Amino acid sequence: MPSPGTERDGKIFRHRLSTRLWHWINAVAVIVLLMSGLTISNAHPRLYWGHYGANFDAAWLTLPRFPGWATIPTGYNLALAREWHFAFAWVFAFGLLFFMPRAVMNGHFRRDIALGVKEVAPSHLWEDVKRHLHLNFETPGGGYNPLQKITYSLVLFVLLPLLILTGLTLSPGMNAVLPWLIDLFGGRQSARSIHFICAGGMALFIAVHLVLVVLAGPINEVRSMITGWFRISGERS
Amino acid sequence: MILTRRNLLLTAGAGLVTGCDKLGQNPTFREVLKLGEKGNFAIQRSLQQRSALAPEFDRTQISPIFRVNGTHVPAGEAYAQHTAEKFVNWRLRVEGLVARPFSVSPAQLQQMPNRTQITRHDCVEGWSAIGEWTGAPLKLLLDAAGLKPQARYLVFHCADRMGTGEMYYESIDLIDALHPQTILAWALNGQVLSVGHGAPVRLRVERQLGYKQAKYVERIEAVADLSTVRGDKGGYWEDGSGYQWYAGI
Lengths: 237, 249
What we know:
- The complex is a heterodimer of chains A (237) and B (249).
- Chain A has helices at residues 17-43, 78-105, 108-113, 122-133, 146-169, 172-177, 180-185, 188-215, 218-226, and strands at residues 7-8, 11-13, 46-47, 61-62, 229-231.
- Chain A starts with 6 loop residues before the first strand and ends in a 6-residue tail after the last strand.
- In chain A, α5 (146-169) runs antiparallel to α8 (188-215).
- In chain A, strands 1-2-5 form a three-stranded antiparallel sheet. In chain A, strands 3-4 form a two-stranded antiparallel sheet.
- Helix content of chain A is 62%, strand content 5%.
- With 249 residues, chain B is of the alpha+beta class.
- Chain B has helices spanning 5-25, 27-47, 77-84, 106-111, 138-145, 174-177, 236-241, and strands at residues 92-96, 102-104, 115-122, 128-137, 153-161, 167-173, 183-188, 191-192, 202-204, 217-223.
- In chain B, the strands form two sheets. In chain B, strands 2-1-10-5-6 form a five-stranded mixed sheet.
- In chain B, a hairpin with a 5-residue loop joins β1 (92-96) and β2.
- Chain B is globular and about 75 Å long.
- Chain B starts with a helix and ends in an 8-residue tail after the last helix.
- The chains are: A mainly alpha (237), B alpha+beta (249).
- The interface between A and B is large, with 46 and 50 residues.
């Protein structure tokens, strides 16, 4: 097994097996969670702040009814959607439990995700924005560019943990075990709102991620997440 | 069909969605999915102290209007008569696997030691309402009746007939039945229970969702096994619509 950064025949080894495995397991889990979550949203498409919130209380957001092609299952079935949601919540949680410690220990976070001081300098970030606008995603050395690192950090260390914690806060059984979670988020209905906002953030991330994969050369990008090997240059030129 | 990238994506997308529907209808896959629910039940029961309390609130946090859900008025002559008589002839029976079956009137229930708790009611659909409930701890009634050692579950038989023609019912295990916040409530926000909220008596099981909070309770039956009761899943929504029996999440 080559170590990340190894170069051979114009290709660089980018992703270890554990990273690739987690990526695909997590992709399936997150998509099922999002789609079954939309069925759950359809059951009561109103969001509130605070501890309580029902039909007679003021909603800060009333969501549209999500269509069948976007939900699991296609037709409205809250009981079945909950089964999907809870089963894949376990896949999602165990995936993170496997990936997070490994990514710390094998240096994935430190080497690939952590931002250097130079990288976050405004001038450097501005250069990176301009490069993105010119659809140039190549980074010298084949690593991630600063905008990519910022995005991955937000997903890994903000969105995913918040989704888990707010999800647990929705459970009346867990409220009896970890009552401080309710205080942390300012009430069950606030946690429900934050859960939905973070899910929206994940949906946005997936959409942008897929667009950028297509723009940056889908074959090379997808191959690197399956075999680990990323072609440094050639495909786009 | 010409295989363009767009068509390919559409077909793949449609395949994913119908694939999930097919999987959801497959009994074996359904059993696999249900492992999630079983895992939730197991882990919550192992993390919870038996008497760990659901959060309680203060009076300033009570919902201005507590939404009535499920049955608004039970249909039928018998319940209408009870309402007209202010429930003086209503009896709540405790029976099944108990040493001393008995029944109480709402007035007797109200004279028992009671507990008042301001708790949050969470509907499976997602909304929440906070109210102040007063009622007799279920444990007191079970102690009076004397549970037999074989008794594992309490089944609550209700007086409201649902849209399908089935009478409402629910069930809980002994851990929830003996929990200090599990009460047979007869008042909400300092007023005797209204018909919409389950007059004259409803169950409160504060660590579970709204559909466990059976209204119009007439009969509490101690059983060894839920598979012998009604549709064998332990509740109206569990039997008819596949809702999870453990509603702690």
